[in-house]
Amino acid sequence: MDSHIIQALKDIVGADRLETAAEELQCYSYDGTGQQFVPEAVAFPESTEQISKIMTLASASAIPVVPRGAGSGMTGGSLPVAGGLILALGRMNRILEIDEENQIAIVEPGVITGKLREAVAPLGLFYPPDPASLKFCTLGGNVAECAGGPSAVKYGVTRDYVLGLEVVLADGRILETGVRTRKGVVGYDLTRLFIGSEGTLGVITKIILRLTSRPTASKTILLLFADMAPAAALVAAMLKEHTPSTLEYLDNTALGLVADKLPFVLPAEAKAMLLVELDGDGQSVALQSSRLDDFLAGHKEILLCKKAANPEEVEALWMARRSVSPAAFNLKPDKISEDIVVPRSKIPELVACAEELSKRFKLPIFTFGHAGDGNIHVNIMLDKANPEEVSSGAQAKEALFREVLDLKGTLSGEHGIGITKAPFLGMELSETSLDIQQQLKKLFDPLNIMNPGKIF
Amino acid sequence: MDSHIIQALKDIVGADRLETAAEELQCYSYDGTGQQFVPEAVAFPESTEQISKIMTLASASAIPVVPRGAGSGMTGGSLPVAGGLILALGRMNRILEIDEENQIAIVEPGVITGKLREAVAPLGLFYPPDPASLKFCTLGGNVAECAGGPSAVKYGVTRDYVLGLEVVLADGRILETGVRTRKGVVGYDLTRLFIGSEGTLGVITKIILRLTSRPTASKTILLLFADMAPAAALVAAMLKEHTPSTLEYLDNTALGLVADKLPFVLPAEAKAMLLVELDGDGQSVALQSSRLDDFLAGHKEILLCKKAANPEEVEALWMARRSVSPAAFNLKPDKISEDIVVPRSKIPELVACAEELSKRFKLPIFTFGHAGDGNIHVNIMLDKANPEEVSSGAQAKEALFREVLDLKGTLSGEHGIGITKAPFLGMELSETSLDIQQQLKKLFDPLNIMNPGKIF
Questions:
Q1: How far is residue A247 from each of residues A243, A260, A276, A286, measured CA to CA in Å?
Q2: Closest approach of chain A CAs to the CA of B124, in angstroms?
């Protein structure tokens, strides 16, 4: 990056808000994918106006700009693959407004998701989306990727909570989209065009979020099955009459990985696990729980039903679920983790496919995820130092994607496309769709400076 | 329209599926606005392929094409203001698939909203959006306008139920958007770009809808207040801890209009009414109802609380609500009906503004609508034969819009922009937003043949 550009950036954000030292650049070169691309500079803007000036400058000099939240993305959304400038948005972390009466919050993009939850809780309010990284990921990143989480089965994903945005466009113009009301249909839906656009259309600088009432009670139940098929069938039946706030599953391999973490002895015949959570106020949870008991009592295919009696037992059950990812590295040192979705009735087919691929490619492959919405995390374990395993892993991933699309699923549920899935976009989207999407990209970013190299 | 175009259209849809007779054209010249624009021809396509051919032809000859469902729109979305061809989609009325296990329906655009509700009910499924016209409006129109309804306070609007679309573009290409799964973030959100785009970006030919479980019980409660302010305050308080499926209000004038329709004597001091509905299964409704009773018992500002004891009483209470619109014509022969939204805490200000405008412009003005989401229908009554009233009505409308925007509201909640609000778009949207939206329109429809004259 030319020194006059560096100076111009310093003039905009302040000399102490621009980093070009190699060791500092390293800190902004990675994300949840484990891949690394080093930027040329990192700016720490503190206002929409500064970002507008930066984008005007970047447009004039055709400098790539990559917005970055916490760098916790799973598909490379915040990696500066074409070099250029990282916009580190961590200093834009103010909760600008909590409108208690209208159940709305207005935040800057660098607010950590969990912090918003904490801030609104004392007011009896709730921001439902709960990506696994919620203690450190940012709302700007959540919006850019349309993050989900276990609670999506009841509450929906980030998209369902964003009412409006402020965005700085590639040319520096400031765009306000959407509304701060519960409804709104004025003009084209620019808000949702930016949601999930992974920083490729503009820089999100403000987010208007819908909140709900906070559930004050919950109930956690673990169910074991001899096979994935009856577990999936139970999910479909359960969702007809019950509204769990979480409905997670582990397949046979995933269950085996955490058997010793469970607060009870895992029956030998258990090959699939469901973790169900109900939430609401105390009375409502009691009623839901009693209704769910009646439902479960009629299902003899359940090997074991374990209810958490207290917060410690809840924690123990969730511990097992959360231990899957770390325990996986006992199998192999590296992991290809894919976030895919199938119609929830097709989960058994998808699990069977993963098992078949595991045998065919001689790599451990296991699945777990959000059974309620068919959003599954498929983990292909391998050793990246072994070229044969790298090749097999890549082939297994592509075969998996083909199966997902055959099952009328989609290649990403909540992690986005970024760089890890960009080569596969044409498997799911038609030429017409790709053409329209590329034209949209060009409309918003004719110089291709907004997070170049992503999605397409 | 040239005779060779007419012939080419007949070749596509069949001679008996194209109308050019003046008396037939009349039937497709109006909508819910009462305005009239006569098309040059009406085609009744029966497949995506036919529509694709029609659009290819229309592009080659620069013929305006206006998709039309039931013609029940409130802002002129289906009116052929530039002449050309009406695509009457009523024959594309097949429910293509109901996927019970995954709670998904795939429909053609001409399916009547209420028919889908009826079709899925026996399976224990539910399509929540309930525009007032649901017995005759079509799902294609609902998607094009992003229709809402009373149940939006609990269930959301059309946007929240559309997973994916098939759309024929202006140039005849067929585009598939979205997913048939619960989650999906692959590429830009084209689905929601089409939702609410009022037929200006393409012709919707297929809709993938998310369904929910059907509520089997409900409870209806009517509340009266001496003023709008305590009613609105109660709404905000209620929504913190309760989840009504409907939360409608009538202001003082609206209440007066239907006083004689109520199944009880209206207390003289009653100046505002709330209609609350709870739904769910029997046990859940009983619990919700008992909790709501406790809540209401603590609110001494409620003049009267009337619970419907049986379906007849429910019907009587709703009768009163539904009688507002027809009864309004006792005041004046014509009506300007505006669908606006304010943060729900601002409803009292909006109601006060309507009363003030009524005095200032010497026209009856009253409001009613969806108190739970601040989506209000403002009715300015006038006599169109009286030029002074027409002028006053127009001024009152513009003053109303200014107040709505001052209250941080939006000019349309569920009826769209069409032609009736197009002149006011610049009041709400910035130059940057309008520029982007017009560029989007140009991207999808460079010849401006898709429903020209709408929105902008």
A1: 10, 22, 5, 18
A2: 7
